[in-house]
Amino acid sequence: MALVPSDRLERGDLVFDVYDEGPVGADVFVLLHGWPADASCWAEVSRHLVRRGHRVVALDQRGYSPGARPSGRRAYRMSELVADVLALLDRLGSAPIHLVGHDWGGAVAWAVASSHPERLATVSVLSTPHPRALARSLASSPQVLRSGYVAFFQLPVVPEALLLAGGGAVARRVLERSGLDSERAATYVRRMREPGALSASLAWYRAIPLDLGPGAGEITVPALYVWSTGDSALGRRAAELTADHVSGPYRFEVLEGVSHWIPEEVPDTVAELLDDHAGRARRPLRPGSP
């Protein structure tokens, strides 16, 4: 199922493609994709959520929407990524929403939940541990080896040349070896080959050294974190440490044998977890209860 842009979000001189499905007036789930995907990664998750009576809104984020590819890494600092999401929430009205993120979208979701908890009913993150948990795991697990690609992506020019070699054949192999199906890999690589698209997406990594502040802090809103044992980029130690940075109701789910590409691989499971998490948030839980 492909998503077709149904709206646009303007922020300054940037224009984002927005995907909006489901009944107006229903609970709203805002879905944030990661690298190197786009909102299409949520297509099947969206279908399942809409069938359950929810409204689903996703956008091709900064660097991915053709009208929102500013130059320079400073334009991709976390503060800008968070501001994009807040602009979307402003468009949706004052009611708290259910924010969901995968991969880099998960990092943005943690940051929004930490800095603007009043805007959210729940936060749900797939794959990406809380950033402080990830930082702690670098010194206490093999995570530093798993994260080697992050340093590589910060190099100028070289990552683009390598990933797009052979018409993107290298990028396709990398994605497929990490567990992404070949059809999706080809789709994402086609997007990467658009003028400026890959460099814009890599600017998220290149902006990391500019975000030297404390990053996401304590999470007080009801939080769901989903990690998969087949994730080649993010290990168990950081996943387990994430609980230390959530003081609100928290649920940690482990998907056995699933790769990093959780939304694409098990969309029905994701939708079920999100639907259940939203329902639990309407019935307040004790902090840390399952």
Structure description:
This protein is of the alpha/beta class and 290 residues long. It is 41% helix and 19% strand. The protein has an eight-stranded mixed sheet, sandwiched between helices. The two termini are 33 Å apart.
Topology:
Layout lengths: L6 E5 L2 E8 L6 E5 L10 H9 L3 E5 L18 H15 L4 E6 L1 H12 L4 E7 L4 H7 L5 H4 L1 H6 L4 H6 L1 H13 L4 H11 L4 H10 L16 E8 L5 H6 L8 E10 L2 H4 L1 H15 L9
Parallel strand pairs: 3-4, 3-5, 5-6, 6-7, 7-8
Antiparallel strand pairs: 1-2, 2-4
Helix pairs in contact: 1-13, 2-3, 8-9
Brief summary of the model shown:
With 290 residues, this protein is of the alpha/beta class.
CATH architecture classification: 3-Layer(aba) Sandwich
**Whole-number total of structural domains:** 1
Write the H/E string, N to C.
Answer: EEEHEHEHEHHHHHHHEHEHH
Biggest sheet strand line-up: 1-2-4-3-5-6-7-8
Number of strands: 8
Low-confidence runs (pLDDT<50, min 5 residues)? 285-290
**Helix tally?**
13
N→C terminal distance: 33 Å
Name the CATH superfamily classification.
Alpha/Beta hydrolase fold, catalytic domain
Structural class computed from helices and strand pairing: alpha/beta
Whole-number mean pLDDT: 93
The general outline is globular
The top-level CATH class is Alpha Beta
Taking the sheet with the most strands, its summary is: 8 strands, mixed
List keywords for this structure.
eight-stranded mixed sheet, alpha/beta, disordered C terminus, globular, Rossmann fold, single chain, 290 residues
